[in-house]
C-alpha cells in the first residue's frame, strides 16, 4: 500500500502546516467577533431617547404643551388635550388641525380618550403626572370640592360571553338599545342677520348649531334665542328661512319639507334670525 493510500485510510489527504495555521486564525477571529456587542454598545447598556425627538408626537397643537387627558377625534385621528378640544368645540364643529367637520351639531360625540398615549406621555416626561395630580388636588381644594376618584377599568374575564351562552341555553334574546329615530330630530343652524359684532349690547349666539324635535315650532326657536341672548322685551325676533319670515305656529318638520335645497346644507336646516326694536 502506498503512502497516500495509508493516509487516506487514516483520515484524509495531508495538509500543509501553513494552511492549518491559517484555518485556526480564521476560526478564532470569527469567534471573537461573534462575542462582541452589536453597534459597539457594552453589555447591559440602555439606549437613551432624546425628548426633543418625540415632542412633535406628544404636544397638543392648541396649547403647545404636553398632552393632559389625551383625547382623539375619531374622524381624523388628531389628538389634543381634553380641556383644549372641548373648549374649541364650544365655537366650532371642525378639527383645529385639519379643519374636517367632526359632527354636524355635536362634535363632542366623536372624541375619545386615548389612555395608552397618555401613559406614554407620563413615562416620557419626568414629573408630569405627579405635577398634574398636585394641580388637580389644589384646584378642587381651593373650591371646597371633593376630588373625583380615578376610574378603574375592571376586566370582565369572560363574564359577557358566559352571560350570552346562558341566554342561548335559556332561549332568551336581549334586544340592543335602540337609537332615537332620525325623523324625531332636526339639526338647525341659527345665523344672525346683521353686523358680526351684534346689535347694541346683544351679540350673535356663540353656539349656532342646535338639535331639536321636528315637532318644535318657530315659537320654541324664538324662546330659545330670547333665553340665550337674554333679550329685553322691547326687541322682537324675526326668524327667516330662505326669503320668507316664518310664522310662530309653523313646525320645523313642515318647514323642512317645504323649503328649497338652498336652505339645507349638509343636512342642516338654515334659519336666520334678526332683532327688531319695537316702536312702542
Question: Can you characterise this structure?
Answer:
A hairpin with a 2-residue loop joins strand 8 and strand 9. It is elongated and about 80 Å long. Among the domains are: 51-124, Zinc/RING finger domain, C3HC4 (zinc finger) (Herpes Virus-1); 182-277, Phosphatidylinositol 3-kinase Catalytic Subunit, Chain A, domain 1 (Ubiquitin-like (UB roll)), CATH 3.10.20. It has nine helices and nine strands. The strands form two sheets. Strands 4, 5, 6, 7, 8 and 9 form a six-stranded mixed β-sheet that branches. A three-stranded antiparallel β-sheet has the order 2-1-3. The longest helix is centred in the first third of the chain and has 19 residues, at 17-35. It starts with a helix and ends with a strand. With 280 residues, the chain is an alpha+beta fold.
Entry summary:
This protein is α+β, with helices and mostly antiparallel strands. The protein is built from nine helices and nine strands. Among the domains are: 51-124, Herpes Virus-1; 182-277, Ubiquitin-like (UB roll).
Amino acid at each position: 500500500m502506498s503512502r497516500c493510500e495509508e493516509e487516506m485510510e487514516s483520515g484524509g489527504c495531508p495538509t500543509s502546516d501553513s494552511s492549518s495555521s491559517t484555518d485556526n486564525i480564521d476560526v478564532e477571529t470569527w469567534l471573537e467577533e461573534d462575542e462582541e456587542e452589536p453597534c459597539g454598545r457594552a453589555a447591559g447598556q440602555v439606549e437613551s431617547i432624546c425628548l426633543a425627538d418625540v415632542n412633535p408626537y406628544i404636544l397638543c397643537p392648541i396649547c403647545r404643551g404636553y398632552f393632559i387627558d389625551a383625547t382623539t377625534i375619531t374622524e381624523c385621528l388628531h389628538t389634543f388635550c381634553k380641556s383644549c378640544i372641548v373648549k374649541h368645540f364650544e365655537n366650532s364643529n371642525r378639527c383645529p388641525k385639519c379643519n374636517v367637520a367632526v359632527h354636524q351639531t355635536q362634535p363632542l360625540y366623536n372624541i375619545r380618550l386615548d389612555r395608552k398615549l397618555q401613559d406614554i406621555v407620563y413615562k416620557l416626561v419626568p414629573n408630569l403626572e405627579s405635577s398634574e395630580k398636585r394641580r388637580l388636588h389644589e384646584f378642587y381644594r381651593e373650591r371646597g370640592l371633593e376630588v373625583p376618584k380615578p376610574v378603574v377599568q375592571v376586566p370582565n374575564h369572560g363574564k359577557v360571553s358566559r352571560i350570552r351562552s346562558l341566554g342561548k341555553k335559556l332561549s332568551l334574546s336581549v334586544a340592543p338599545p335602540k337609537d332615537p329615530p332620525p325623523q324625531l330630530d332636526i339639526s338647525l343652524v341659527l345665523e344672525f342677520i346683521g353686523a358680526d359684532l351684534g346689535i347694541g349690547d346683544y351679540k350673535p349666539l356663540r353656539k349656532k348649531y342646535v338639535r331639536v324635535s321636528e315637532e318644535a315650532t318657530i315659537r320654541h326657536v324664538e324662546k330659545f334665542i330670547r333665553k340665550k341672548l337674554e333679550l329685553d322685551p322691547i326687541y322682537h325676533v324675526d326668524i327667516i328661512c330662505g326669503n320668507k319670515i316664518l310664522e310662530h305656529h309653523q313646525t320645523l318638520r313642515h318647514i323642512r319639507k317645504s323649503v328649497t335645497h338652498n336652505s339645507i346644507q349638509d343636512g342642516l336646516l338654515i334659519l336666520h334670525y334678526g332683532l327688531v326694536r319695537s316702536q312702542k
